[in-house]
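Lay summary. Proteins are chains of building blocks that fold into shapes, and those shapes determine what they do. In this project we predict the shape from the chain. Here is one chain we studied, written as its sequence of building blocks.
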Amino acid sequence: MCPRTTAPEDQYTAEPFVPDGADLAALREAAAGCRGCPLHRDATQTVFGAGAADARVMLVGEQPGDQEDRQGRPFVGPAGKLLDRALAEAGIDPGEVYVTNAVKHFKFTQAEPRKRRIHKSPSLRETAACGPWLAAELAVVEPELIVVLGATAGKALLGSSFKVGEVRGTVLEREIHGRPERLVPTVHPSSVLRSDDRDAAYRGLVADLEVAARALS
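And here is the predicted shape, written in a compact code that computers can read:
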């Protein structure tokens, strides 16, 4: 009897799919075929990061949402529009940042076909599986500052004990994937949209992004 082979997604690592020394265009092309975890099975497509390779700021969110999954670009839905407004208000040009997610495929639940797809948070195992893509993006962009958007991104970059409420709006210095980095954590913009007091939540996001803007000056 032939030994049973394990499917790549059962290994829970994107590493075999990440080309060495690739630029962003080559990484994006390779990521389109990633099967490093089971999330690729149900998602429409891989949603890789977007922005300039020489961006001073990298924003890292959780995962693509419904609109991002359909369009193939990060932060194009309601949360992305809110984020662009908050960045501009804080003094950071939205057109001069690199935006990406800790997880590159949309994870969701769906009661039945054609029903609305409901966002479901990725597990630590899924986030870790996607880590090699984030490490590759950081190696190419070499940002001066990383803005961490929410708990999932924070855990992906800073470990499972990360709590956004404890460190939001502060400048952290940590070694991330072998590189010294400066990071400013804040909430994910989608949490602002879900907040009972959206105005206060939005002002808090802007205040955190203003810390990032000052760290760059």
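What the prediction tells us: The longest helix spans residues 198-216.
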